[in-house]
Structure formats: structure tokens, C-alpha cells
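ZP: hey, is the manganese (II) ion complex queued? I don't see it on the tracker
AM: it wasn't, my bad. submitting now with these inputs:
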Amino acid sequence: MGSSGDAWKLKDHPKLPKGKTVAVIVLDGWGEAKPNEYNAISVAETPVMDSLKQGAPEHWRLIKAHGNAVGLPTEDDMGNSEVGHNALGAGRIFAQGAKLVDLALASGKIYDGEGFKYVQECFEKGTLHLIGLVSDGGVHSRLDQLLLLLKGAAERGAKRIRVHALTDGRDVLDGSSVGFMETLENDLAKLREQGVDARVASGGGRMYVTMDRYENDWDVVKRGWDAQVLGEAPHHFKDPIEAIKKLRQEPNASDQYLAPFVIVDDNGKPVGPILDGDAVVTFNFRADRMVMLAKALEYEDFDKFDRVRVPKIHYAGMLQYDGELKLPNKYLVSPPEIDRTSGEYLVRNGVRTFACSETVKFGHVTFFWNGNRSGYFDEKLEEYVEIPSDSGITFNVKPKMKALEIAERTRDAILSHKFDQVRLNIPNSDMVGHTGDIKATIEACKAADDGVKMILEAIEQVGGIFLVTADHGNAEDMVKRNKKGEPLLDKNGNIQILTSHTLEPVPIAIGGPGLLPGVRFRTDLPTGGLANVAATFMNLHGFEAPSDYEPTLIEVVDN
Ligand SMILES: O=C(O)[C@H](O)COP(=O)(O)O
Ligand SMILES: [Mn+2]
Ligand SMILES: [Mn+2]
């Protein structure tokens, strides 16, 4: 697309007027599944979302939010916020990080690029450190990709390799970290047999060590830095499997929040601090929870915590995590190039835009929505508001999170008449769903519903239009099931709690006094997904979507 103004000009919609305030509400982790006791959404009191469902099929329907519909490698891949918000904002389906890394590994191209060559320069004299999430969740990283990379690096000259493993339990079952570590150890042992000095050097639970996001709590990244770079942690072990097993026995321990540990040798010396002359690869493909570490590793000027020692390293990300900041500068696989997003089109067509969430999801409705791009397209026309999240707690402790504050700020934005689009992410069903606490998740869903109510009332007052949807499932199924759909029990006879997202579709509802009576969901797009939503709200703003966007979900019939 050229840079001339005309290239951005959207055609007028033949039937739908401009000038209506449109609220685009994303309920994070709100899928649709049969009502049952493990469906926190169906158990919760959610009168507003229930009433919208009565509008089916004309004003309420389901759309796909997982697998190929959001650019993931297979139909077994659950949806997630990154790919979900990318699809919602971009209106098209892009092959996502998981898939791009698969392809680069399969073809071997990953080793031909500038990024790998850069880290390879350290193989002769230094250590290769691999930092990332060790699980098969497929949301931020994948263990099979790490194993291929280990093998590939060893074949290409890496003589000393250290893995800094973050345990998951959020995109996968809690407790599964032991098995993933065993798999990793197995492969490292094979490398050792081949003469490569390959070991795990440190570890910790992803939510407590390293993988914070949107600068909510730098202490999380500092804990990781201390273990990974300085070789300092409260717990020392000789064996990483033993480390996980032991630390999981502590009160309230879980994979997500496992305490940081370092692996030490027989003399008690850490086996793998990061030193001058080493290479570092962060092997997560997803950006949000790697950007903070990338800044700590890459920036010379850095004041978020005392790094104590800043090693001179060759650092590359699995992907470039922020295209605007060019962070990190070196990367193994090029990220999807998500251009011409709906946000940019609408702003360039004069649509005044407001976006809001609390810190833990703020980048979802801004950065991910705008195709992994930070900042405004046009400061004069946009306002992005971040409500500070609680930090240092698990969200089941405060399941209401900041839903009310997000809704209030958005309501005020609507009533101010200063904006044509207000978009928001209400995080509760997702963030509390990830804790696996069913009771708290039920409260979380109610809080999200209350938030929707406030927005819908404001839209009612200004004669506007609302579009409510979600980015993927989570709270609608809180139990691991067998192929027949029956809840699975663990060896003690307890149900296995599902902390992760799901494969379920998500609802989409439209309405409000500004919606013309003839507007309804088309019936000829039964497999429509998140990528069809952008064209839909562009129509509600009175524009036709660009021709290469996935088709709109709505039609206008003459009444
Ligand atoms: O990062 C997380 O919290 C989870 O891995 C995925 O959740 P999200 O995709 O909803 O952010
Ligand atoms: Mn999400
Ligand atoms: Mn989530």
C-alpha cells in the first residue's frame, strides 16, 4: 500500500450511515460451551450476555477463534490473545509465529539467516543460552521447536549449551512441567553423549520468573535475570527434575509460580550464568511476555531494575518481538508482517478511536490489535488508556480485577462524544480462568458481565452501536476432558483442572439503538471467525472493508 492518502481511503458503505459511536467489546477468554458445573460462564450470573444470546441468529452467533481461523499450525491449536487480537484488528488471517517457526525449522532456513549467524559467532569460545517456556502449549513457545533448535545449533558448532527453563502450567496442565523437563533432559543427555556440554542452568515458574508483560511487575523479570544472568536464586539444585519436584511440594506451589532455582555443580557453583562472549536466544515466538526480558538483555540504558552485571552477548529473539522498537535487533525468524490493520484504516478515514484495558491486557487492544505495533497512528485522533493492574497477586484473589474501572473509563469516553470507536478488553474470564479457581472464575464472569452492562447503557444513551465478542475460549471449560468429553480424574480421584484456553468458538453480538433495523448476521458464512469481525465493524462505522479483508458477517435487508 502506498503512502498517499488515497490508498487509505475506504469506500462508503452503500446502506450504513457514518457517525455512530461504535463500542467494540472483547471479553478475554469467553467461549461458548454446553452449560455444566465446570462452565464458569454458564454457572455465573451473566444477565447481559444471556440477553444478547436471545438475539440469535440475527444479532448473536458463534465464530471460530482457534486453529487455522487465526493462523495457527493445526486445528488442535487453541486460540490465544495474540493471534485472536491480531485477527480481530487486522481482518485477515496471517500465518502466526508458531507456524513460521515450524516452517523455518523444517526447511532449515532458520540457520541461514542473519540472526542465527550472529549467535553462531559465539559458539567457538562462548556458551549458547536458550531462555523460554518449556511446554507444548503452543501459545508462547513449543518444546519440540526448542529440541530441534538445540540439535540444529549443536550440529552447527555449539559446544556448550545452557537452557534456562520456565515452567508453564497455564497453557498446559499444572504438574506437567515434570514431564516436559524429563523430555528436555533426555535430549540434552543425547547431546552430551555426542560431546556437547548441554545442560539446564536455571528455572522458575513463568508467572513468577521472567514472563511478565506490559511492564506490570519488573520484579518478575529481575528474578529471572538474577537466576539466568547472575546465577543467583534462593534455591540450588544439581538436577532440574529434582528441582521441580521439590519446589512443587512447597505450600501453594504450582508450575506457573514455581520459585526460581539455579543448577549448581558438585562445588555448589552455578553451571550456567550468562557471561561476556556468550550467545543468548529467547526461544518464545510470542512477544508480549518476552519484550521486557528483551529490553533488559539488549538496552544499554536501562533503569527498570539493577542488572548488577550486564554481559556483552550476542542476543537474538526467536522472532522480533516489536517491529516498531526493532526489539530485539537480531532474530531467527521474521515475524508475520501484519500491515493495513483496521485500526490504521479507520484512523486514516477520520474515525476517532479510544482503546482501554488494564495493564495485563492493555497491549492486546493496542499492540496486538494494531498488528504488533506500539504507539498511535495519529495522536490527534486516538487515545489509549491503561488502567494499572494489581501486581504481585494471583487474580483469583481479586476476581473483579479492574473491570469496573475499565468500563467506567470507556463509558466516559462514549458519553464525551469525542470518539467514534471505543474498544476495550475485559480480562476477567481469562485471567482468573488461568488460575484454575472455578469459584473465583464464576465471580470473574459476573464482573465482566457487569462491565458489558455499563458500556451498553452508555451506547444506549448516545444512540450508538455495540459489538461484543471474545478472543478465544477459557472460562467456559475448566476441566480436562477425555475424547468423549467426560471430565478426567487424576490418580487421587480429583478432577483435573484446566487452566488453559480451549478450542471452543466465541460469541459475537451486535445491537444498540444506532443499528439499522435491517442489519443482521448473514447465514452464508457458517465458518466465520475472528478475522471476519474487522470488516463487520468497519461496516458499522459506515465503510466498506478493503477487498482483501475477510468478508463481513453482516448484511442489510430492506424491512
Ligand atoms: O500469556 C498468558 O497469560 C497465556 O499464556 C495466554 O493467555 P492470553 O493469550 O489470553 O494472553
Ligand atoms: Mn486472551
Ligand atoms: Mn489467556
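AM: back. The radius of gyration is 24 Å.
ZP: great, adding it to the tracker
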